[in-house]
Amino acid sequence: MISYQDKVVIITGGGSGLGRAAADSIAAQGGKLVLVDMNKESLEESRKAILAHSKDASIEIVEANVTDEEQVKNYVQFTLDTFGKIDGFFNNAGIEGKQNLTEDYGSDEFEKVVSVNLNGVFYGMKHVLKVMKAQGYGSIVNTASVGGIRGVGNQSGYAASKHGVVGLTRNSGIEYGQYGISINAIAPGAIMTPMVEGSLKQMAGDDWEAAGKEFVSVNPMKRFGKPEEVGNLVAFLLSDAAKFINASVIPIDGGQSYKY
After folding, report:
1. Which InterPro entries did the record assign (predicted)?
2. Where are the beta strands (DSSP E) in the chain?
3. Residue 52 and which of 28, 32, 95, 217 are 20 to 30 A apart at CA?
4. Catalytic site residue 137?
């Protein structure tokens, strides 16, 4: 039995997709949430959607850019000022970026993707870990990708940044386990989120739905994953039930990354 009663969790990228799904799962189990995103409107939509399922949930929202370290410090401090502690952190905000061969991949685009997906994760860990170390406990889940454990064609920035997230997760898990802190990463595959839909549209334009069916035809489970399936995994990994899981990267991709 997993319970989040009296527990406080920060979720970046909380305005949609995996962030919203994890927030929904944690709120249903009694957790108090601080949702962080660049888009205030999407944050309000997340809060409304979660309250529709968990009407008594405690949900705060913070508009912030995870690539700005000062704004990261601010959402961490806001959480402490509001709730007095941080039990869990879903370090999830990320972007895919444009698709292109490495030789044609724009340098500005590469820096943009790495800034969000890797620097933003690092800043979040850096400032949340200070709090958790002082507390003597805590759990962090970073969002990597199957693109962080194997190559992904035409996505140099994305693959490089997600490989970096894997490295940060393993390294920090080794460093901070002694302080009662578990740090893990999830490696989602094809989960039907707005980001994956955008990726399919980049590849196939108006034929993106047909391209999606072809894409998942090679998956052992023959379908896209659901955001709530990832959200439930995150809720487990951040819970007390998963305290001895540390410095691990857990694929959630229907088995696709093991097929080849």
Report:
1. KR_dom (IPR057326), NAD(P)-bd_dom_sf (IPR036291), SDR_fam (IPR002347)
2. 8-12, 32-37, 58-63, 88-91, 138-143, 181-188, 249-252
3. 95
4. no
Tens of pLDDT, residue by residue over 150-177, are: 988 889 999 999 999 999 999 999 999 9
| Domain membership flag for residue 3 | no
Identify any residues that bridge with 188 across adjacent strands, giving them in sequence order.
252
pLDDT tens digit string along 177-201? 999 999 999 999 888 777 766 676 6
Rg of the Cα trace of the chain? 17
Using alpha carbons, select from 18, 39, 14 the residue that is nearest to residue 191. 18
Rounded to 5 degrees, φ, ψ at 142 are -100, 145
Residue 1 lies in a domain: no
In this predicted structure, the answer to whether residue 215 has a pLDDT above a threshold of 60 is: yes
Counted residue by residue, the chain has a size of 260
Coil, strand or helix at 11 = strand
CATH code of the domain covering residue 156 = 3.40.50.720
- Provide the residue range defining the domain that includes 149: 8-258
> Model-level pTM?
0.93
Number of domains the chain contains: 1
CA 66 to chain centroid, in Å, comes to 12
Distances (CA, A) of 169 to 4, 163, 164: 23, 10, 9
Residue 149's Cβ-count burial label (10 Å; 0-12, 13-18, 19+) is: middle
Instruction: Calculate mean pLDDT across residues 60-66.
Output: 98
Among the listed residues 4, 75, 123, 158, the single catalytic one is 158
Helix, strand, coil percentages in the chain from 3-state DSSP, rounded to 5: 55, 15, 30
